[in-house]
Amino acid sequence: MTMFSTFNPSAMPSELVEGTFVQRVGLAERLVDIFDDSARRESKHNVLLVGPRGIGKSHLVSLVYHRLKAKADLSEKLLIAYLREDEWGVTSFLDLLVRTLRAAFEEAGIEPPASTRDLSKLSRSQAEDHVWRSLQEMLGAKTLLVIIENLDAVFQKIGEQGQRQWRALIQTHPQWAILATTPALFSDISRQVAPFYGFFEVIHLQPLSLDEAVALLRKLARCNADEKTEAFLKTAIGRARVRAVQHLAGGNHRIFVLFYEFLRQGGSEHFVTPLLKAIDALTPYYQSQMARLSPQQQKIVNLLCEYRRPATVTTIATDCFMTHQTAASQLRHLLTARYVRVDRVGREAFYELAEPLLRICVEGKGHRDRPLNLLVDFIRYWFSREELERKLSGASDRDPGRDYLAAALKEYDVEDAHVHLEPQIGLLCRALRAGHPSEELRLQAEELAELSKIAQDWVHYTKALIYLNRGQEALPTLEKELQENPDSVTLLRAIAGVHTSVGSLAVAGQFLDRAIAQNPSEGLVLMDRGELLAATHHYDEALEAYEQAEFFDPSLVAMVAVDKAAVLINKEEYKAVRKVLSPFLAEGERIPGVFFSYGLAFGHEGKHEKALEYFTKAAAAFENHATAWGNKGVALCKLDRYPEALEALERSLALDSKGDKVFRHSLCEAFLETKQYATAVEKSSPEDLSHNIFHHLLKIVNLGPKQGRLQQQLMELKNAHDSAKWQNAFLGGLIEFASYAAHEFDEREDIKVLQIWNSALQELFAKLDNFSILLKLFDVLTRVKVFNDKKALLELPWEQRTLLIGEQKDEDFLNSSAVRAPEPLGEK
Questions:
Q1: H helices within 176-294, ranges in order?
Q2: Which of 257, 98, 86 lies closest to 181 in space, CA to CA?
Q3: Residue 327 contacts residue 361 (beta carbons within 8 Å)
Q4: Eight-class DSSP state of 209
Q5: In this structure, what DSSP letter does residue 111 have?
Q6: Could you tell me if 686 and 674 are in contact, meaning their C-beta atoms sit under 8 angstroms apart?
Q7: Residue 1 contacts by C-beta under 8 Å, 6 or more apart in sequence?
C-alpha cells in the first residue's frame, strides 16, 4: 500500500504529491508561473497562503516545489531553500539565515562552507554578514526562493527586530522570493507599522467541497490500486456517505486522509484500533494548539468540543460563566486565529470548531474506557441503523469495535440524532424540487435516499425513491418501522406519499386520515392533504386544507403559497395567484415556484412582457428548471423575439428531452421565423413542422395578399427546403389550413380570401400528383362556402370529408344551416 504522509507531504515522492492533489489546480499553476517569473525577471513575488491546520497548505507548497524543480531551464536561474515545516531551533534572524543557508546547500547537494559551522567567535552582526555572504556567493545571479511554513511562529520567534533585519536585507539585495504559509493572519503581517505589512500577496485557502472531498478519496484509492473503493466512491451511495461525514471533516484534507482506511469498503472490520492509534498520535499536536490560547479562549474551545453543535454567543457566555461582551471579544480572536468558524442566520451568529479534530484534546483525556465520541459520531453518520445492527450482531465480545458499534447504534435513539445531516438533506431536496429529471438530479436523488436512510428521515427517503420511480421499494422498510411505531405521523405521511405516487389516492387518503387523527394540527400532514385533494380536482377543499396547514404551522406559509397558486391557476383565478404569491417575491430566488407561477398567471392573461420578466427570474434562480426555461421561450416567441427564444427553448429541452409539446412546437416556430429551415427539418418532428407551416400560412392570410403575391409567397415557403420531410410538412400544413377554413371561414371577407387561395393553389399545383387531394379539398370547400353546395362534399371519400366537417354525420351536416349562403360578392 502507498504510504501517504498525513503531516509531512514534502517527504512524499513527487508522483504521490501529484497523484493526490485536488481542488487547487488553477492556483498551483499560477504559483508555479509566479515563481518562474521571479526567477527570470528582476521583480520578485512573495505569497502567503492562509488556512487552518490540515487544509492542504503543505501539500500545495510541496507540489509547487516539485514542479519548479522539474523545470530544467530554471536550474541556472533559481535556487530553492525549502525549510522544514517546524523549524524548532529558529530563535533569531541569525538562526533563520543559517537554516536558509543549510536548506539551500542541501538543495544543491553540497556541504555548507566549514566557516559557517562555528560562528561562536564572531559577533552577532559579523555572523549574520558572514552567513549572508556565503549564501550570496552560492547564489550568484540566481533568485533565492524560500519556502517557509508556519510563518507566524517564525516571526514570533525572531521578534520585530529580526523581522526588520530580514526586510532590510531583502530590500538591499532583491534576490529573494518567498512562498510562506500560516494557519491565520497575524499582527506581524496585518499591523500597518509591522515590517512586512503589505509585503505578501495573501491567498486564503478554502476547505474541500463535497465534490473535492470525493475526488481526494478517489485519488487516494487510485494511488493504492484500490479499484473497489474508487468504484464505490463514484456511486451515489458513496457520495452520500462522504457527505454524511463531511460535517466532521469540515472540508479538512487531513481528516479525510486520516480516515481513508476507514472509508475503504474492503477494509478490516477491526477499524477502531488503528484509528485510536492515529488519534493518540495526533493528541499532543492538538494539545499544543490549545496551550497557545488564553484561559478564556481555552474555556470557549472546550465548551464547543463538548457541545458538538453550533452555539450562539449567548449560549457560550452562559455556559462559560462570562459576560456576553467578553465572550464576543474572545470569539473574535478565535475567529481571526481560525480556531472557530461562524454561520449567520438572520441576526444570530452560530459558532463551531473550525478544526473538528480539536475535540480530541478534550475527549482524548476523558474518555478512558468509554468510546471516543468523535469516532462514535463518524460511525453513526457512515452506517445506517440496519448496517450497524448487522455489524454488531456479527461482532464478537473481543472485537475492539463492538463498543463503538453499540454506542453509534444508541445514537439513533437520541432526539436530535441527525441534526448535522438536516442542512445536507435540505440542500438535496431543494435541488430536486427546483429541477427536472436529469442524470445529475438522479444521482442527487440517490444520495438523498441514502442520506435520509442514515438519518431515519423517512419522508425525504420516500421522496427520493419516488423521484427515482422506485417509491414502492420504501414500503417494506416503512411498514416495518410502522409496526414498531404505529402512531408515527412521519411514517404515515411517508407511506401515504408512496401510495400517491402510484395512483392509489384512496389508500393514500386513508393513511393521511390516520396521521391527522394522531395530530390534527400537524401542518405538513394538512399540506399533504391539500396536495391530494388538488390531484383529485377538489380545488376548494384543497385550498381549505392549505389554509389550515399555514394556520397551524406558519413556517410553511411560503411553500403553501406556491401550492395554493397551482390550484388557483387550475381555477383560472390569475389575479388571486398574484395576490397569494406577492408577499414572497422578495424570496423568490430561494423558494422554487414563486417566480414561475407568478409569471404563469401573467402568461395566461396574455401579458407576455410581465410573464417573461418572471420566467427569466425563475430560470436564473433555478437553472435546472426546464419548465421555466420553456415558458420563457414561449413568451419570447409571443413577443417575436425569436433568437432569444431559441436559446431558452433549447436549454429547456436539453434539461428535459421529453418536455412539453408546446415547447417543441415553439422551438420549431422560432427556427422558421429565423429562417433556419434546415435546422427545423433536422430537429423538429413532422407533426410540429407541419403545424408550424400551418401557422405560417395563417400569417400570410392576415397580410391579405393579392393572388399574384400569394402565389409567390407560397412558392417561397414550399422551396425553403428541398427535403421530402419539408415537402410533406408543407402539404400537411395546407391540408390543416383547409380544415381550419372549413370551420372558421364564414364571413364575407373570409370567403373572398378562400376564393383567392383556391385559385392560387389550382394555378400553382394542378400538375403535381401529390397535391391532387389538397386541390380537390379546396375546390369542394370553395363550392360549399361560396355557393352553399353542400352536396359537393359527397364527391370526397369519408376520411377526406372528416377533414372538413369533423366527426359529425354527413346527414347532420347536409341538413343543417351550419354553412349559410353568403351575400352576393358584389353587394355589401
A1: 187-190, 210-223, 227-234, 236-249, 253-258, 260-263, 272-291
A2: 86
A3: no
A4: -
A5: P
A6: no
A7: 224
Measured distance CA(374)–CA(380) in Å, rounded: 10
Q: Are 255 and 248 in contact (CB under 8 A)?
A: yes
Q: Work out the angle between the directed axes of helices 439-455 and 422-433 (0-180°, nearest 10).
A: 150
Characterise 139 by phi-psi region: left (phi > 0), alpha (psi -120 to 50), beta (else). alpha
User: Burial, 31: exposed, middle or buried (Cβ in 10 Å; 0-12, 13-18, 19+)?
Assistant: buried
Please tell me the distance from the alpha carbon of residue 430 to that of residue 621, in angstroms, as a whole number: 12
- Determine the straight-line distance between the first and last CA of the chain, rounded to whole angstroms: 98
* Cβ–Cβ < 8 Å for 334, 349: no
Q: Report pLDDT digits (tens) over 741-779.
A: 888 887 888 888 888 999 999 999 988 888 988 898 888
Q: List, edge to edge, every strand of the sheet that includes 201-204.
A: 78-82, 143-148, 176-182, 46-50, 201-204
Q: Which residues, in sequence order, are bridge partners of residue 342?
A: 351
Residue 19 burial by Cβ neighbours in a 10 Å radius (0-12, 13-18, 19+): middle
Q: State residue 265's pLDDT score.
A: 42
Between 82 and 56, name the one with better pLDDT: 82
Task: Give, in order, the Cα–Cα distances in Å from 204 to each of 21, 49, 177, 213.
Answer: 17, 6, 19, 18
Q: CA 775, CA 778: separation in Å to the nearest integer? A: 5
Q: What is the pLDDT of residue 586?
A: 92
CA torsion 189→192→195→201, rounded to 10°?
50
- Quote the DSSP letter at residue 311: B
Query: Among positive and negative, which fits the CA dihedral 248, 250, 254, 259?
Result: positive
- Of 272-281, 607-616, 686-695, 728-737, least confident by mean pLDDT is 272-281
Q: Is 351 helix (H, G, I), strand (E, B) or coil?
A: strand
Cell numbers that stand for 450 in this block: 441514502
Instruction: Quote the pTM value.
Output: 0.63
Three-class DSSP category at 684: coil
